[in-house]
Amino acid sequence: MTQTVGGPGATASKATVAAPRIGRYRWVICALLFAATGLNYVDRQTIGFLKPALSAEYGWGQADYAHIVQWFMIAYAFGYVLFGRLIDKIGAKLGYSIAVVIWTGAHLACAFLGFLPPALMLTSFMITQALLGLGQSGNFPAALKAVAEWFPQRERALANGIFNAGSNVGAIITPLIVPIVMLNFGWQWAFVATGSLSLIWLVIWVWIYRKPSENKNLSKAERDYIEEGKPEPVKQLPWLKVMRIKETWAFALGKLLTDPVWFFYLFWLPGYFIETYKHQVGNIAGVAAPVIVIYVISDFGSIAGGWMSSAMIKAGFTVNMSRKLTMLFCALCVLPVGFATMFIHDLWTVTFVIGIAAAAHQAFSANLYTIPSDTFPKAAVGSVTGIGGTAGAVGGIIMTLGVAQALAGLGGYSAVFFVAGLIYFLAVLVIHVLTPRLAPAKIGVEIPA
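RE: above sequence
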């Protein structure tokens, strides 16, 4: 603001009184969430890049690999609801820590499976990947809980977009690390190399993370900014009450429809490139280039999607309009991938089209992830996120079955990409019907904390 200085007859001068500096410590927390999400995807994708080597060594077919993925998805579906509820009870710090301990322990355990008899390998990988899925399901409920605690509504989509971009960085790091370690030291050491990074993150998380009200590094100005416009806190809401609210299902059905596409990219793209473009990519190391390109492109999409709706809100658009226009634009950008693999047979053209679709998915997700914090109090964010994550994992299980059937002769990869290209329009429609104004959910009686 400005203030005029001087008495009558004096020359007026203006002195600018600077507003208090808000501070940026909240972005340190966002960086931690970004790193955790990246490592989550490194560990999750490792099995996809080791699939050719493990299949050759132990005689696995497409159905065997699909069973491993299915067990991951089943545990992931169960764990999402479990962790969503648990994190609402015990908080983001402890909840995240428990999740990382479980998933990292399971991931590192895979390194020792090579000592087992070959007949036990498939079953053992199903068990360890199920435990991996159980632990990894805690990542997004904990991260979204942390964003709800550390960011005002106007910045949440951007914060979500940034930490969600970690999934793309993880997907880029995986093909850089795993094939090199595997080819030089064996597949067992690929699990050790990637899992050790998550242990380092866990130490940093436990050391740094505190709620804004408990963090001594946070200025009063930034704390006030974070709490701006937030409703009074409430105690944890009964699960059945959350389940009956239509905004819960706007988020859950959005995840059910779109998450399977991302799981398809994560678990099946390396195999798709080897099987379809073997003469161009050669072995698993050659797959790294197109996969990296796809996830580099998608990284920009994740941040751009969060920025787009946040910029629209700052420009005066309603939260409802900003989120949904962004998601509709993303659906349009995904559409070409539904037809690309039918009519385009050039490796790098297909790679670019898939990259745009993956970027649009991440931009869509950055806005979809804001629905729990846009429409529910902080005490319910973990539970709603857990329900939505479970729905997304159920969709992933269905997708895994569908991919296995398609590859058995019912349309091949082209049929899967066709569904992936169209599903986002249905998701936008369902979200709009269930929450036409994206207003705070009508929860009923709230109990003050």
